[in-house]
Design brief:
The protein is an alpha/beta fold and 430 residues long. It has 14 helices and 25 strands. The strands form seven sheets. A four-stranded mixed beta sheet has the order 2-15-17-16. Strands 4-5-3-14 form a four-stranded mixed beta sheet. α3 packs parallel to α7 and α12 packs parallel to α13. The longest helix is centred in the first third of the chain and has 13 residues. The protein is globular. It starts with 5 loop residues before the first strand and ends with a helix. The structure holds shikimate-3-phosphate.
């Protein structure tokens, strides 16, 4: 992990290279948690071991499940739900919302007490979205701020199947409900307003669970023990996205990212890039259990875009990059229906606009997105990552095609999802 509090990024004369990015963060979290509740040794190759997934590894260990890394393989010694033990201390999820929300679905149905918390950012984030559906299944949960914020406490409970509806299109909420559903006494279904990433569903099916999706509703009928996983984790599309965006907005760039996850629930940014006329080519090489392939991105002339609706959950982690792409486009672009950005590691509506404004790029923050005028390029300056990994990397991507050096405060936060980010930046920049 980088320990630098700040980094200075120089504009790059050229961006060239071919790389693999760290293993997918979302799938690695699931490899650990689903491996822990599977019966037997799960093998997870090329896990992404950033600070967030290390938090999940710590939680799994505190629940009595051992795991070990041998070379590029992670082995999780699962013993089924009943192999989990009451943790002797509060479980800390650090900065990771995925850890806290997914583990809530597991703890909700266990016959022991447990307590979960996280860092200051995570303790500010909304948890009512998981507490409410889990309580509707019979979970006994107490949480700060009238059941909406961590720390949270789980008491022993027996869960029953339920028909649920969530107002947010969130893969974390959906996953928490599915993990609780596996412990319930009958079928559970959850309706969400738009599709979101389906890594949990794919992996649970690979473990033999009955999980179906129909007309916006995911359903799960508990059917016995889960098989262990045998999984190759692709590179993280959300990490690759910084290089793709950096390349298309740079005047002399060609970057190839190999072995990247292309789950359609994650690749909304590619749809936006296509609509903007970007020179980005994608080759899909494998399909199961997750689509994986190569992405080639080159310097591009970009048209303005108007993005919103069902596309938003498919680019939720890449939305800050949409503002950067828009600044380099021809005309005014808009991102709508993305109020969820306010509930991320930072309020990304605000921190995206602030980080780019610090570099002289004007982004007009809206309650549900951004409006960005085209024809803007970053100057030199000093941007604050606001403790948010994706804002640190956004500022770096902007700086590469800027006109002067950019100092990024809190640059070390990149290690939450992408520990080698600054080394890869140095390799790609000439
Ligand atoms: C994630 C789901 C998304 C995403 C987050 C990872 C996951 O969150 O923003 O980075 O792994 O399930 P929401 O479920 O809150 O949309």
């Amino acid at each position: 992990m980088s320990s630098a509090r700040f980094r200075v990024v120089q504009p790059a004369r050229r961006l060239r290279g071919e790389l693999r990015v760290p293993g997918d963060k979302s799938i690695t979290h699931r490899g650990l948690l689903l491996g822990a509740i599977g019966s037997g040794d799960s093998r997870v190759r090329r896990p992404g071991l950033g600070a967030d997934t290390q938090a999940t590894a710590g939680v799994v260990a505190a629940l009595g499940i051992s795991h070990a890394v041998h070379g590029d393989e992670l082995v999780v010694r699962g013993r089924g739900f009943s192999g989990l033990r009451e943790p002797s201390d509060v479980l800390s999820c650090d900065n990771s919302g995925t850890t806290l929300r997914l583990v809530s679905g597991i703890l909700a149905g266990r016959p022991f007490h447990s307590f979960v918390t996280g860092d200051a950012s995570l303790r500010r984030r909304p948890m009512g979205r998981v507490v409410e559906p889990l309580r509707a299944m019979g979970a006994q949960i107490h949480a700060r701020a009238d059941g909406t914020r961590a720390p949270m406490a789980f008491a022993p409970a027996s869960l029953h199947g339920a028909r649920l509806r969530s107002p947010v299109a969130s893969a974390q909420v959906k996953s928490a409900v599915l993990l609780a559903a596996l412990q319930a006494d009958g079928p559970t279904s959850l309706e969400q307003p738009a599709p979101s990433r389906d890594h949990t569903e794919r992996l649970l099916r690979a473990q033999g669970a009955t999980v179906t999706f129909d007309d916006g509703t995911v359903s799960c009928t508990p059917n016995g023990p889960l098989a262990p996983l045998d999984l190759d984790i692709p590179g993280d599309f959300s990490s690759a996205a910084f290089w793709i965006a950096a390349a298309v907005v740079h005047p002399d760039a060609e970057i190839t990212v190999r072995d990247v996850g292309l789950n359609p629930g994650r690749t909304g940014l590619l749809d936006v890039l296509r609509a903007m006329g970007a020179d980005v080519r994608v080759e899909v090489e494998r399909h199961e259990p997750e689509p994986v392939g190569t992405i080639m991105a080159r310097s591009s002339t970009l048209k303005a875009a108007d993005a919103g609706g069902d596309l938003v959950p498919r680019l939720i982690d890449e939305a800050p990059l949409v503002a950067l792409l828009a600044a380099h486009a021809d005309g005014e672009s808009r991102l709508r229906d993305a109020a969820e950005l306010a509930a991320k590691e930072s309020n990304r509506l605000r921190t995206t606009a602030a980080a780019l404004a610090a570099l002289g790029v004007e982004v007009d923050e809206q309650p549900d997105g951004f409006v960005t005028a085209g024809g803007q390029r970053a100057g030199g300056g000093r941007a604050d990552a606001a403790g948010d990994h994706r804002i640190a990397m956004l500022a770096a991507a902007a700086a590469l095609s800027g006109s002067g050096p950019v100092t990024i405060d809190g640059a070390d936060s990149a290690a939450v999802s992408y520990p080698g980010f600054w080394d890869d930046l140095a390799l790609l920049s000439e």
